[in-house]
Design a protein that fits this description.
There is one protein chain. The protein is built from 9 helices and 10 strands. With 298 residues, it is of the alpha/beta class. It folds into 2 domains: 2-169, Rossmann fold (3-Layer(aba) Sandwich); 184-290, K homology (KH) domain (GMP Synthetase, Chain A, domain 3, 2-Layer Sandwich). The strands form 2 sheets. Strands 1, 2, 3, 4, 5, 6 and 7 form a 7-stranded mixed sheet that branches. A 3-stranded mixed sheet has the order 8-9-10. The longest helix has 18 residues, at 246-263. The radius of gyration is 20 Å and the shape is globular.
Amino acid sequence: MKTGFVALVGRPNAGKSTLLNQILDRKIAIVSDKAQTTRHRITGVLTNETGQIVFLDTPGIHKPRHKLGERMVEIAQSSLYDADVIYYLVDVTYEFGPGEQYILQQLQKASAPVFLILNKIDRLEKAGVLALIAQWQKRMEFAEIFPLSAKMGDNVEQLVATTFNYLEEGPQFYPADSVTDQPEEIVIAELIREQILEATRDEVPHSIAVIVEQMKLQDDGKIYVGATIYVERDSQKGIIIGRGGMMLRKIGSKARREIEYLLGEKVYLDLWVKVNEDWRNKESAIKSLYLDDDSDEF
């Protein structure tokens, strides 16, 4: 069977997580119209009759403004050297600028073939797509160019089929029924954070972290999930909780439905909100968020 690793890179909000979910036909990465939604390098696994592709969905490459941002960019850039194929996603609704130029410079250092993926073409006329392809062909030599709509699924099957042509015969890395290597606690925490981003919009930016503290089976057959939502200021805590706790109940209700769909079980979701000032610039907090050391402190 053919096997290999594919890294998804691009600017924040280019549609990397949407494309990964579309390819897998499962939601394993949260999606938001806010930039820098993805913080982890999320592994998605696709296995079919041709072979197995392990997808690495990375945080968007951007100019960091805090230690968390630096960590996110490090994750994205390191994936360029772990991959057999690189998907470079571009949002066609945005003009080419310094951000894209910086990513192109990084891609030119990579040894893996680079697929240019022009995403959100459903928002352009056909003539506009053809003109855009011509512009990008002058900027770098790409192994393949795929105009597609990650949201609608247009041209996604052909993208996957072509990717297998670039992979070698090799061992199967994950069981055939695997779709991700992310622990359930991480996926659940991200589902909760997605609902916070959706509910609060611009009132509370990316100063939110969610950690699942406890999961256990209750006597009534429901799965108890206890999670803490961290913010950086008391004012943000008030927004998350809302008047009379209404906002927190709204977030919890929507997140619970997503978690129940993920687990296939009834869930009792218990949420707390705590303040950890300026946590995005604290190494201990970032390490706890990414579960990459033995610290339990946030």
